TrEMBL record, chain A:
Alphabetical UniProt keywords: Acetylation, Cell membrane, Cytoplasm, Membrane, Nucleus, Phosphoprotein, Wnt signaling pathway
Localization: Cell membrane; Cytoplasm; Nucleus
Organism: Cynoglossus semilaevis
InterPro entries: PDZ, PDZ_sf, Synaptic_Scaffolding_LAP-MAGUK
Broad class of the protein's primary localization: membrane
One of the Pfam families matching this protein, by short name: PDZ
The protein, known as: Tax1-binding protein 3
From TrEMBL, chain B:
Entries under InterPro entries matching the protein: AHD, Cytokinesis/Rho-signaling, HR1_rho-bd, PH-like_dom_sf, PH_domain
GO biological process entries: actomyosin contractile ring assembly; mitotic cytokinesis; septin ring organization; signal transduction
Name of the protein described by the UniProt record: Rhotekin a
Native source species: Cynoglossus semilaevis (Tongue sole)
Segments forming domain REM-1: 1-69
PANTHER family attached to this UniProt entry: ANILLIN/RHOTEKIN RTKN, RHOTEKIN
Region (Disordered): 188-214, 481-503, 597-674
UniProt KW Coiled coil keyword: yes
Length: 124, 674
């Protein structure tokens, strides 16, 4: 997932649909995100390119809605319900995921293993 | 044929005699007058008369030649009836001439001393008619040469050539051409500076009085009176034809003769703006009228309606009675006759043995046909002839027949007030109150001036008030329609009647601005403010207002909020020492967003980009508060949620959770639980 700012990027992406879980007054998804354009990308342990300021999944609550839906730690979130997540601040990203009116979030995520899988299948 | 030509001959001869008399009078006036202005005016009329005489004489020559040729051809071949159609004539009007100047900034700013002035005027020639414009004194405080005259040529054919010539004459007070003896002149020129000596010499050389204005005319022997006095020289010329005719303003190129060394030189930009309109007679006059019978569409074949039809412009007006035409009653109906109309003669009607005329028009997608007939075959023939002539005229006059162009008849106007002697351009700048920015500025100025007026009534006034006071007695020139539309179909004229409340103080004689920002393309528009902004040495704030008015409104709120946010964040960052990580993080994050915002998002996002700009700064500050609150709420309901800890508040629970996540150091890299 090489990333050059300003250039269009292509990635093998997977769609993941997460149903939010209601716990009292909150709707939780069961994962944590890190990253954002206002954050230091060098600290991101999951990104291949240390200048990538995208939003990454840093932790998955086991058994939570995200886990059930198939989200994996280290995924880079590209879109949430159609909203772009590659050029957002950390707080914007969090807000987009935690909208109270939305019960479902449909994510577009990418991960290294996906690319590998595609390459493998193509080489056969 | 002979009669008319001899008639025209005598006409021309009379005109020539008249002009010769005028010229003699001008010569005498020139010799007698003492004041510079008078001398310039007299020289101008001398120039005009000479040019007219030249034109008439060449016309006379051509007519004589044509007569001779005709006699020859008639003998040689028996030509049948003249098959060549002549297109109808028309009126051609040229108005609002404006010639931009391109002064060098050195000329303006550094050259404070003498003011190099030139007197200029334009000669316009079409066919046999020559008109001159009023004379304008041009010096470096003028940015354009504007001629307000509207000149109408009444008898132009579609193939006309309108020749515009710009004459100028140096008008230095010191070098009034007197009868200084040659020796003295050369002594003076050697003792004076190089450029001034050159000017002196140039003003004293006799020079040609009647310039060659007709390109191909045979050289005519004309007694050229060498009159002492100012002499005009041709500075630039251009020729306009039917292709330049348009209902709006256009820019045309000028061919400049002369160079910088000449005394009469003016730094012309090289183009000229004007409005050239044409009204062919087929659009304004009745080409054909008579009684017709029109078949009713849809009704039975035998019902014909008798109408009195008038063919004018792009329609055939059908009135019930002939008297209706004079009475200005609305016509019963109108049949359009334009370039798309097709007219043909149908087969003979069995009853009347007269051919019908069918006129077909396309209205939208449908074809509508009107059938007309007349009482006799000759009438039908005459109508068909009229239609053919009309179509021919329209094909010759091309774009002038699409719509009637307005031609303003030159009305008697009061003479323009004398230009102010000396004054910096800045004193007379008009701030156009048509845009938000400029209106606010002018409002501010107006308010201040009102305050000052009150104060001056009490006796005190600031020093800069005197700048306005010295301009107040000047009269504002004629009102001109000036719109500052960006589309640019209006003239880039000086705003003679500024709309700001302090109008009496402003004197807009200077042809400054142009709040039009249109491009100089020959195809549609005219006024080159782009000229003005690029080629003048000094800034034009008012012309920039329309450009800037759109952008600052968008840029300003962003910068203001960013500044405000930065200052508040700095204060906040210093306050929370323990929040050093989070606060510091947010602090430096203010800078990257502004730069990264400009990068395009790699994946097409539906998220509005502008939102980023305003929200970035807000999010910087709010992330501190919101994440802290979220972390608080998180911790309260879910013991596991260890991630929402952006701030290293030294509390035991958080510290232990942080130790678990040593690899993902939240101090530098925010993580949020969702």
């Amino acid at each position: 997932m090489s990333y050059i700012p300003g250039q269009p990027m292509t990635a093998v992406a997977q769609r993941i649909e997460i149903q939010k879980l209601r716990q009292g007054d909150h709707l939780i998804l069961g994962f944590s995100i890190g990253g954002g354009i206002d954050q230091d990308p060098g600290q991101n342990p999951f990104s291949e390119d240390k200048t990538d300021k995208g939003i990454y999944v840093t932790r998955i609550t086991p058994g939570g809605p995200a886990d059930v839906a198939g989200l994996v730690m280290g995924d880079k979130i590209l879109q949430v319900n159609g909203w772009d997540m590659t050029m957002v601040t950390h707080d914007q990203a969090r807000k987009r995921l935690t909208k109270k009116k939305e019960d479902v979030v449909r994510l577009l995520v990418t991960r290294k293993s996906l690319e590998k899988a595609v390459k493998q299948s193509m080489s056969h | 044929m002979n009669n008319s030509s001899s008639h025209r001959d005598s006409d021309l001869q009379k005109k020539i005699d008249h002009e010769i008399r005028m010229r003699d009078g001008a010569c005498k006036l020139l010799a007698a007058c003492s004041q510079r202005d008078q001398a310039l005016e007299a020289a101008k009329s001398l120039q005009t008369c000479s040019t007219r005489i030249l034109a008439y004489m060449s016309e006379l020559q051509r007519m004589k030649e044509a007569q001779v040729m005709q006699k020859v051809t008639r003998r040689s071949s028996d030509a049948g009836p003249m098959d060549d159609r002549m297109p109808c004539k028309g009126k051609v009007a040229i108005s609002d001439l404006r010639i931009p100047l391109m002064w060098k900034d050195t000329e303006y700013f550094k050259n404070k001393g003498e003011l190099h002035r030139c007197a200029v005027f334009c000669l316009l020639q079409l066919g046999g008619e020559i008109f001159d414009t009023d004379m304008v004194i041009v010096d470096r405080t003028l940015t354009d040469i504007c001629f307000d005259n509207a000149i109408v040529f009444s008898d132009a054919s579609p193939g006309f050539e309108l020749r515009v010539e710009l004459y100028s004459c140096c008008s230095e007070d010191d070098y009034s051409a007197g009868s200084t003896p040659r020796k003295l002149a050369s002594k003076l020129s050697s003792s004076l500076g190089r450029s001034s000596g050159k000017k002196l010499r140039a003003s004293m050389e006799p020079g040609p009085v009647s310039p060659v204005s007709n390109g191909g005319a045979s050289p005519l022997l004309l007694p050229v009176p060498s009159v002492p006095g100012p002499k005009y020289h041709l500075l630039a010329h251009t020729t306009l034809t039917l292709s330049h005719v348009q209902d709006s303003f256009r820019t045309h190129d000028l061919t400049i003769s002369g160079n910088e060394e000449c005394s009469y030189w003016l730094p012309l930009y090289g183009s000229m703006c004007c409005r050239l309109a044409a009204q062919p007679h087929c659009m304004t006059q009745k080409m054909m009228s008579g009684c017709l019978k029109v078949k009713q569409c849809g009704a039975d074949l035998q019902s014909w309606t008798k109408v009195y039809a008038v063919l004018k412009g792009t329609s055939l007006f059908c009135y019930h009675r002939q008297e209706d035409v004079e009475a200005n009653v609305e016509p019963a109906f109108t049949i359009g006759i334009n370039k798309e109309t097709r007219i043909r003669a149908a087969e003979k009607d069995p009853q009347s043995k007269v051919q019908n005329i069918c006129i077909s028009n396309q209205y939208g997608g449908e074809e509508v046909t009107h059938t007309l007939t007349t009482d006799s075959r000759e009438d039908t023939h005459r109508w068909m002839e009229a239609f053919w002539q009309h179509f021919y005229d329209m094909s010759q006059w091309k774009q002038c027949c699409d719509d009637l162009m307005k031609i303003e008849l030159p009305s008697l106007r009061k003479p323009a007030p004398a230009t102010p002697k000396q004054g910096s351009l800045y004193h007379e700048m008009v701030i156009e109150s048509s845009d938000d920015l400029s209106s606010s500025v002018s409002d501010i100025l107006a308010r201040r001036l009102q305050e000052l007026e009150l104060r001056s009534q009490l006796g005190t006034s600031p020093t800069w008030m005197s700048l306005f006071e010295e301009n107040s007695p000047k009269i504002v020139g004629r009102p001109r329609p000036c719109t500052s539309r960006l589309s640019g179909h209006s003239p880039c004229t000086p705003h003679r009647l500024p709309r700001s409340p302090v109008s009496p103080h402003r004197c807009a004689q200077m042809g400054l601005l142009s709040s039009d920002v249109s491009l100089t393309s020959d195809s549609d528009s005219h006024c080159s403010t782009s000229l003005c902004s690029h080629h003048y040495g000094w800034p034009e704030p008012s012309s920039n207002f329309p450009i800037l008015s759109s952008s600052p409104s968008r840029l300003r709120p962003r910068t203001l909020s960013l500044d405000a946010k930065l200052s508040t964040l700095r204060g906040r960052g210093l306050g929370g020492g323990g929040v050093g990580g989070g606060g510091g993080n947010c602090h430096c994050s203010c800078q990257p967003p502004s730069s990264s915002l400009l990068g395009p998002s790699p994946i097409s996002s539906r998220s509005p980009r502008l939102q980023h700009s305003t929200q970035t700064t807000l999010s910087c500050s709010s992330s501190t508060s919101s994440s802290s609150s979220s972390s608080n709420s998180e911790c309260s309901h879910s013991p596991e949620s260890s991630e929402g800890v952006p701030f290293s508040r030294p509390s035991p629970v958080r510290r232990s959770l942080r130790n678990l996540r040593a690899r993902l150091d939240p101090r530098n890299w925010l993580q949020s639980q969702v």
